[in-house]
Amino acid sequence: MTSDPFGTLSKALWIGGAQWSGKSTVARLLATRYGLTAYHYDYHDARGHLDRRVAYRFRLHQTAADPDPEAVWVNTTPERMTHETLAGFPQRFEWALDDLRALDSARPIIAEGWGLRPELVAPLVDSPGRMVVLVPTELFRQHQIRQLPRASALATRVSDPVLAQRNRVARDRLVAADAVRSARRHGVRVIEVDGALDPDAVTDVVAGHFSPYLEN
């Protein structure tokens, strides 16, 4: 493994889990409360890692262009989408680790994102207590789809947006279930988010879990 010159990974706290479970919000609130640095995986994965993603495709003799949205969202199945998503996480995790190794902080780094998988994080930490996995309940996810415009439609234009959205939701459900199974295999706590608690209250729960690492 590449060196960790500032010891960032050994001090990091990790929030993994499902899409739409409040990971980014909780990480941001924790950072504000405790003077932490927050690392938002989704932002870096979608923007900061673009050049590395293109180079990686070249090494695999793939086209450098992004995949056709029709193939990604419409002409596929949730099971295939899940397989492709899970298969891509390990390489993308290595890029996130490069980002994290470059950070130097006297306080823990709080890293959040759905690509921060329990099976990938577990070898890096001295205790599974350094991680939690957040997942929305099915009822709460359906509530989000009904109430939140961003949760109920794709930003990408495709020929059949209804099918694409159905595939997306089913894919997210399968990836979330896999994260829960992985968390339980590795002794990582799973927190179900059902909407009964507001973001501050969910953050209280996560802060309580991380309290041994936040007290100093």
TrEMBL record:
InterPro entries in alphabetical order: P-loop_NTPase
Record-linked SUPFAM superfamilies: P-loop containing nucleoside triphosphate hydrolases (SSF52540)
Protein name in UniProt: Uncharacterized protein
